[in-house]
Amino acid sequence: MEHMTALTLYFVAGLAAGSWFGVQTLLILALAVLLEAGASAILLGATTGLSWLLVGQVALQFGYLGGMYLRGILERAGIVSIVPQSRRS
Hints:
Blueprint: H1 2-20, H2 23-44, H3 46-77
Helix pairs in contact: 1-2, 1-3, 2-3
């Protein structure tokens, strides 16, 4: 049961990152999944850690893809207007 909860949280985090944030946030979330999978590998074994890493990253990526798709739909419908920001150096 806790695996499904974690996968749901990964998917929702990816969905939020794809809807509101850029790729930098996705990379930070991917690093967090990597660290969690490393802890899982230490505590539960290498096979469990590697499978946890693979499944967690896939859920995060699909969530991000879904968030980008959702943002595109909302922009086309005129519900959301995202103004491009210039980078300040």
